[in-house]
Batch of 2 targets.
Target 1
Amino acid sequence: MCGIIGIIGKDDVAERLVDGLKRLEYRGYDSAGVATVHGGAIDRRRAEGKLNNLVKELAGSPLPGTTGIAHTRWATHGAPTTSNAHPHATGEVALVHNGIIENFKPLRDELIARGRTFDSQTDTEVVAHLVSELVEQGASPKDAVRQVLPRLHGAFALAILFRSHPDMLIGARLGSPLVVGYGDGETYLGSDALALAPLTQRIAYLEEGDWVVITAQGAEIFDKDNNPVERPVTISGVSGAMIDKGNHRHFMQKEIYEQPVVVAQTLKAYLQRMDDRVSLPIPDFDLSAIRRVTIVACGTSFYAGMVARYWFEQFARVPVDLDFASEFRYREPVMEEGGLALFISQSGETADTLAALRYARSQGQKIAVVVNVPTSSMAREADLLLPTHAGPEIGVASTKAFTCQLAVLAAFAANLARAKGRLTPAEEKEIVRHLAEAPAAINGALAYDEAIEAMAHHIVPARDVLYLGRGTDYPIALEGALKLKEISYIHAEGYAAGEMKHGPIALIDELVPVICIAPSGPLFEKTVSNMQEVQARGGKVVLISDYDGVQAAGEGCLATITMPKVHPLIAPMVYAVPVQLLAYHVAVLKGTDVDQPRNLAKSVTVE
Ligand code: F6R
């Protein structure tokens, strides 16, 4: 999962390519590079690490040329070094790639046997050589690409530049997104509409297997069987303005603070406050015949799905399967005709989730998608699109997308329950009332930021941290552990509180802080018993609860964090906030890169 952009421009393009990369950095930031054709030759600049290094490189050694391609990398094959940075080039061809060429090894061996030499350890470089070989033998760029594409297995989006044809670029898409942008006497390729936002809003989304030849005059698109095809040009509506941090130190902090507003915005689309009803963006989508829901997602989105499983089963009494997208297809799940498969994703591009979606479609499922990027592949492949209105999420660690997903899923569960005849109007009214309280309650949770910041130093020296929760607090424990490990690099695990005694309690000593998520309510006492089992063994507990909970069980804790008292339905949205803030402050104290933690990328478009 890397970001790619190509421009056939009227003027020099290097600066605009780099501006596009800034918008794509969420896809990876291990290295970056740009290539143009000028003076009859391909020229490139590449740099290891963050995009700033490439900017410095270009400042010292500018790159002229009106046609060019650029790339920001999340390393798959080969370390994040300059020689593995894209574009990869021969004398004739330079290309950038997002995805994985799964059969690169035999292709590489074959090319080496024919005398070609490689400069990198990447899977990508084989494509540059395969295309170049044919061009060197006299094939046109179009013929060369047409012959090479069927030889590539795996997932790719490609943008290819040719020394002898500085007036064209060729792009191809299989499994990784690629869009064509139409400008005024200019044409563009990009991983998404966001990359091209300041250049054009007129976007065509390539479909699986499509490839495209772009010139300044426009684009010629071909499908996987090489037939010329038209793909509709849509107006993306994505803002060209660079998103900024406002008064906040990090995007993650800004996004945590945006939650009351964006959750309210999201709920507005799903609640009819006037008549106390929940609703769907497609009101006539029939949910009454749904007998089973299969929820599939990755990472934080998976934990949102885990919370939703409780709601679907409790409200609608519909059985729910839940799986990681990366595992789902491989167990070849049996999916009854007519079931609903529900995919949850911030980006809408996560390769594992997208592949699972396509599997579910092949099994005759209706496809519902909870997604934050409305122009994403998943959004476009859904039967029932359930958007979150979180706005662009830039921090790599997901925060506001998660609480907005929870808001959508709670409303969706209530819709399903009503369609199944399981919800009386009075119960529906109660659900609407509680959900409507969520934004203010999240705001109330944010008011404890300083207290959380003050206790974060207890966690900083830890090597391991455990998070415990029960019921819907269990996925929040998992989410808290994920947040902490990904941005502070402290090892953390979430456990179902009742499972501690079946093994993990052996880990407890005074050096392992245990964060207990236990709002007062039906499960409080049981969780507190598990917490006391930890304390009895010398464990240092941080209790996150409301005033009543802290009064009842706070004694003897290393620290307590007091949340507003809320209804259990919205507790997951509210208790997400302290675990996000805790991870944030620990990371700040440790001095890690909060918004771009090591080894990660925002959009994971490789399987
Ligand atoms: C964690 C995080 C990831 C994503 C996961 C799925 O903070 O952001 O775990 O949740 O990569 O991404 P989406 O939701 O875009 O499918």
Target 2
Amino acid sequence: MRQGRARTVRHPRHVAIIMDGNGRWARARGLPRSMGHRRGVEAVRAAVRAAGELGIEYLTLFAFSSENWRRPKDEIEELLGLLKHFIRRDLADLHKEGVRVRVIGGRDDLSADIRSLLEEAENLTRDNSRQTLVIAFNYGARDEVARAVKRIAEKFAAGEVTLDALTADYLGEHMDTAGIPDPDLIIRTSGELRLSNFLLWQAAYSEFVFMPCLWPDFDRQSFEDAIAEYASRDRRFGGLSREIAS
Ligand code: FPP
């Protein structure tokens, strides 16, 4: 994955994607939903490659939400199987390309084989620095906040922290995303206009781009279009617009 373009102020450092529309993509072709998810994995590979080429330092992908357990059992099995297959097949290549893998989401209720695969991916790639791929798996933002509060409560109970230290920054340091900058840009495909319990804390100042295309159709051009839309926005972070301030 080459850094094809220098990052500018208007270039996002961290892009997070809600990959939506696999089922509709399959239905439109008279195919089973599983085919949509399989094509979705191809789009994942293309997006990771494109992010590297476009100089995106952090790419977060919403692969499986804490609410996705409500889906039919066979679809859950398919999604878990695809994740396992992706890590087994692609991990060596990702490592070779200098990609660091981070996983956010609850681990405790995952099966031992998935937990150890996720740990293997993180451990093997932990010193890579070219690009970070954050996989949100069994992830829900409210769960994440609860996990962070629990971690802090444990430190508090152990006398390791005082009430005065409990700032927003301190809470951020206990989220699953500790050490990862907040997303500059959040993309959602398939035309849905929701955040769906994704990165609620980290999205405080993110720009949103909602695209009509279904996830399996998301390609390099779609990625570039979303970045161009981001570049046209005036990010103020509560301050004044560029025009007024200058
Ligand atoms: C939404 O489509 C997509 C998902 C629930 C999961 C996304 C998963 C993948 C792309 C494959 C696995 C990921 C990795 C990282 C290997 P949907 O099923 O909600 O589509 P619909 O709204 O059209 O029914």
